[in-house]
Structures are given as C-alpha cells and as structure tokens.
Design a protein that fits this description.
Blueprint: E1 2-6, E2 17-22, E3 29-30, E4 35-40, E5 45-49, E6 54-59, E7 66-67, E8 72-78, H1 81-94, H2 117-125, H3 144-153, H4 184-199, E9 202-210, H5 212-229, H6 235-249, E10 256-258, E11 261-263, E12 270-272, E13 274-276, E14 279-281, E15 284-285, H7 293-309, H8 314-317, E16 322-326, E17 345-349, E18 352-359, E19 362-376, H9 382-396, H10 400-415, E20 416-418, E21 443-446, H11 450-461, E22 466-470, H12 483-487, H13 490-509, H14 524-548, E23 552-555, E24 557-561, E25 565-569, E26 575-581
Helix pairs in contact: 2-3, 6-7, 6-9, 13-14
Length: about 600
Amino acid sequence: MALEVKVPVLPESVADATIASWHKKPGDTVRRDENLVDLETDKVVLEVPAPADGVLKEIKFDTGATVTSQQVLAILEEGAAAAAAPAAAAPAKAAAPAPAAAAAPSPAPAGVDTLSPAGRRVATENQIDPAQVAGTGRGGAVTKEDLVNYIKSDKPAAAPSAPTAAVAKAPAGPRAEERVPMTRMRAKIAERLMQSKNSIAMLTSFNEINLAKVATMRKELGEQFEKANGIKLGFMSFFVKAAAEALKRHPIVNASVDGNDVIYHGYQDISVAVSTDKGLVTPVLRDAQNMGFADIEKAIAAFAKKAREGGLTLDDLQGGTFTITNGGTFGSLFSTPIVNPPQSAILGMHAIKERAIVENGQVIAAPMMYVAISYDHRIIDGKDAVLFLVDIKNQLENPQRMLTKNKNRTRHRKSITLSSPESRVPSPAIKGLSNTMADQFDVIVIGGGPAGYHAAIRAAQLGLKTACVDNFIGKDGKLALGGTCLNVGCIPSKALLDSSKQFHNLTHMFGDHGITAKDAAIDVGTMVGRKDKIVKQFTGGVALLFKGNKVATYGGFATLKPGRIVSIKGFDGKVSPWVRSRSNYRSRNPTTSSS
C-alpha cells in the first residue's frame, strides 16, 4: 500500500521549511521511524521519519526546495522491502564487473552521521572520511567549512625541488571560490540582527567583576555539589541566579516594547545563548527566578546536548524576557552584544583573566571578567542599566548570599507560624481577602499606612513572603488599606479642601471678569461623597498592589508582646494570638506598632 510522507504541521510562527538533505533515494529500503529527510526552518531542523517499513518509491521535492505544512514530500510503498530484496539480488549476480569509470556511486564514508546535513552532503559527494579532518567546531566537531578547506588543501605532494631556489609563480587559472547560499537559520539570524540594529536605540554599558569568591566557592563546594546533583557547578548558574535577582529589583530591564506600550513581565524567563554549527540559538530557562543552581546547570547541559544533536524544539527557543551570552567560552575579552527583540536587554560575559587590582591598599592578582549590558535606550535609562550591572557585580562578588538565600528563607518561614484554626477569630470585615492562618511568612508588617504598605510591597518584591495587618474599615465594611493618611487624614482632607477651593473661586475670583454666581450653594452630601470616592480609589489601589505582589492582608489591631507573641484584636472585639514567632530573634520593642 502506498503511503504519503508529509511535512509535519508547522507552528504558526513558521511559514515554511527548506529541504536540507534527503537520507534516502528512490528504491531504498527504509524502516519505520528511520529519518528520511531533514527540513530546515528559521529556528530548528526537523526530522521527518518513515511512517512504516517499506521502500521509498518517489521523492516529490529535491534538496533546496521550499515546502509548507502538510505538503506531500514522498511516496512510500509499505511492506515492499521483502519483495524488493530478492528482486534486486538476481541482477546483482548476473551482472558482469563494470569498468571502474562506470562504477556505481560509492557509499557514504563512515562517520558522516555525526555531521550536519550540509556537512554530510560535502563528505558523501567527495568521499571524505571525517575522522581524517581536523575539526574546528565546538568540542572538536567537524564543520562543513572544515571539509571544504580539507578539499582545497588535499593536493598531490610536489616533486623534490632543485637545490637552487625557485621563484613562486602566480596560478595560471582563476583562483577557486565557492558560493554557498545561507541556511534558513543563518538567514533568520541575519534578519533579526538587522531588525535589532534598525529598530532599537541600542546602547552598551560595561563593568568588571572580581570572581575570586565565586572561584573559591566552586573549588570548595564543587565536589560535594557534583556528588549531590550529578553535574558540575559552573559559572553560568551564578550569573543566571544573579540576573534573575537583579531583574526583580530592576523590572524595566525585564520589560519589552510593544508599539507604544511597555510590557512588564512578572517572571524571569532567561534565554541562554548556545553555539551550534548552524549558528547561535537561545533556548529559554522558564521561571529562572524559581530555579536552584542544580536546576540551572542541568537545564543548560540538556539544552547544549539537544543543540548539538539538532533536537531543540520551537518551544525551547520561543519566549524569553532577558538573554545571557558568554563569548568568554571562545576567548572573547570584550564585546558589545546585540539585543534579541522583543527583549530589551542582553548581558554579555567574557573571558576570565588574571589582572592586577588594588584591594585594601594592596596590589593583588585576581580573576577578573569584563561584563557588558546592551539595552534598548527607548525604555531603559542609562542609570537603570548601570545599576542593574552593579547589582549583578555585587551579588557575584558576594556569592555566599546567593547560595544561602534559599536556606535562610526556609528557616525564616519556619520561624514565624500562625496558630491553629481553632484559636483564631475570623473577622467579617476581611471577607474575601487572604485569611489563611496556616501560612508562614518572612515579614509581617503591622500597619498599612504609606510606610507600612511601601515596606510590605518592597519586601514581597525582594522575594520575601509578606503579610500586613491593618485596622481601618471602609464604608463598605471591608478592610481599607492605607492607614490614617489615606482614610481619615491627608487624602480626605485634601479632597474636601479642593471642593472648598472650587466654591471660593466660583463666588469670589471671577468678579473682575464680570462672572458672578449669586445662587451658588454647597451640597455637603455631594462633597463628602466625592471625598469617599477618592479615598476608595486610593485604598483600592493599595489593595491591588498587595494582590499583584502577593502580600497577604489581615484585619484587626495587632500588638507585639514579650515571648515573641503577635496578638490581633479582631473587629468583633475578640482577641486572639493569631501569629506566634518561634524565631531566635527577639523584638527590640515588643509593643504595638503602627505604620
């Protein structure tokens, strides 16, 4: 039965594909799931397997042709392998040895399966054994350029020269040149680089980092880390962790431009540049802010392996809010990396070199690295980029903070716990808000005024699990965050004063213009209603910020007491020790605190 071999369904972001190379020719026997053809897209190379055992009957498109999703590539005759083999055997016996000039094409040399599709084609056509070629690719891999250079240099040895020196003559014929079309991936890379250059107001800032402490930690903890996690502790995981933390504190660097809008991402999906024979690809570490060092190292190693084997998928490459590239792997000392749109910034790492620096008044040798951040100056100011780079520098020059952060955070969360459900007093005024008494927190802020809500939001942005207790109830019976300032002080007073000012202007300020308002009157109810509306907008804004930054809220009157007890008097008048601290840290002022 004849089966159609079709182009796989391509994602929406990929319009078509190019046939890179056929691994079988018409009449060849194939096995189920054996790779028939490589299709090259803008981002990855897709393999098209045989749907069944049989014989490849017909090829519809030659190498280099452009195909689209679900187009028929070839016809496969299912189950014809057994019949084809005997039929081919008889002519082989009867055929007389042919002259060497008319011999059939030689089979592909051994070892070509490890090459890229273009490399396999060059090696097969020229009968080159890749083992005889010195590879210049990553890890000593043989690239297409290595094979072409090998062909050019593979000439018969010249006869021994005479004792007298001979004058070298220029070649009589034209010098060899080769025109090779860009691969789809290389063409896409070129297109995106030009897009970045032409559409982004790009600027680069530099700094240098002393990696002595990172190197020491890798030396001291490397063996233990590898035994525990099955992978080595590299430098890249330190940079990814530092970048993820810095992006939290400098969210504009993690943002992107969409028309006239700036999109702030509440997560850190960090793209890590990986070099392949076909070009640079940037697989994405999803939610890097939640990954540990071992998770990062394993993910990068897996991506590198998939990239070398051509196994990266489009999902691996799509997305990303920030990129890190390491030119130091190839010896680069200094560079200006290019931003990868629609991202707005990229961090460039470089080679680590021993340099003389001054530390505590002494000249010492230290392992130094130049780092660069290229950024879209349309939305990122120079100050933001420089502070982001300084943040990364400070983290990497004090790496013990990064390694101990998760451990300390766990200890702090365990040190502050809430009492059992039986002992708490629920409050109707906070219905619908967070009231999970079994939660654990790193920070508990008492008082939701300007100082309190700024502190709570900042703590949450730094990655600390935070709660806030406040005692104001709005006219709707719900918790009204914002403290005295937003509820009964500054904001309400200014709202009423503004209404009074408008009345004064109406009755006294426009007489010189011939404008009078003899029947002007004050409607106190309307003025107060306007004031309440403004207050609700402000308190609702604080509640929205709390929700967006995951700050839990509790209603009542909180009191710090000796013995590390936090008691809360609910709006119904009942008192309950809702929060009990088991921390070893004692409060310096165990009294009621208000923000």
